[in-house]
TrEMBL record:
<dbReference type="GO" id="GO:0016853">
    <property type="term" value="F:isomerase activity"/>
</dbReference>
<keyword id="KW-0413">Isomerase</keyword>
<feature type="domain" description="Mycothiol-dependent maleylpyruvate isomerase metal-binding">
    <location>
        <begin position="5"/>
        <end position="149"/>
    </location>
</feature>
<protein>
    <submittedName>
        <fullName>Maleylpyruvate isomerase N-terminal domain-containing protein</fullName>
    </submittedName>
</protein>
<dbReference type="InterPro" id="IPR034660">
    <property type="entry name" value="DinB/YfiT-like"/>
</dbReference>
<dbReference type="Pfam" id="PF11716">
    <property type="entry name" value="MDMPI_N"/>
</dbReference>
<dbReference type="InterPro" id="IPR024344">
    <property type="entry name" value="MDMPI_metal-binding"/>
</dbReference>
Length: 218
């Protein structure tokens, strides 16, 4: 719960401090500008709010690891929701409007998470999870998107170190194997999710795990 709040607050702060010109730069999400990514974060915040007020009365069917499914192919941008986000982001026109909306909805999502009972059961995407597991899954979401945000912005702040560390552990559970100890947490996340290809030296260290990569999470 605390790590959800920490990583989400850090990501929102990073967006709030971006100069207007940076919203037109590419993000780490293929085909998305920074403004498109920020618009996606608004949708993410809405999803968190909706899920936290969608109680379930059955046993959990997923946890912070099995919440994620691994797709066969990377997104192409042709998905209707992906295309909608690009159009919606462009409709904001002024970066300050997008910043305001993320701060408004994002702050509400953060407060709702802090007030939620971690043992309560919620439903989302045909799954039932405890609130603790649901918010735990989102630590990976926030961390990956923080890395996406700063992919081409060298002066922007990195995510807090606890976020990549926990996210790496989740990704290793999803993969069913550990990344080499020589990989930093950030490198494990970027290589593991296909955000950058491994170097020849990294591929040699990955061994059999290389055959499972990249893990396209959805």
């Amino acid at each position: 719960m605390d790590l959800f709040s920490q990583t989400w607050a850090a990501l929102r702060k990073a967006v709030a401090e971006l100069p207007d010109k940076d919203f037109e730069k590419p993000s780490g999400c293929a085909g998305w500008l920074v403004r498109d990514l920020v618009c996606h974060l608004v949708i993410d915040a809405q999803d968190v709010l909706i899920t936290l007020v969608t109680p379930a009365d059955t046993e959990p069917t997923a946890d912070a690891v099995t919440y994620w499914h691994v797709a066969d192919e990377a997104p192409t941008g042709d998905d209707p929701l992906d295309a909608l986000i690009v159009r919606l982001a462009a409709a904001y026109e002024e970066p300050h409007l997008l910043r305001f909306h993320l701060d408004d909805v994002g702050s509400a999502a953060g407060r709702a998470a802090e007030l939620a009972d971690p043992a309560a059961l919620v439903s989302t995407q045909d799954m039932v999870l405890t609130v603790g597991d649901y918010l735990g899954a989102y630590v990976l979401e926030w961390t990956l998107h923080h890395l996406d945000l700063i992919a081409h912005l060298p002066d922007a702040p990195a995510p807090p170190s606890a976020g990549p560390a926990r996210s790496r552990a989740l990704l290793e559970q999803i993969a069913g194997a550990a990344f080499p100890a020589s990989f930093t947490d950030t490198d494990a996340l970027l290589v593991g999710t296909g955000r950058r290809p491994p170097t020849d030296a990294e591929r040699a260290e990955l061994g059999e795990l290389d055959k499972k990569l990249p893990l396209i999470l959805g």
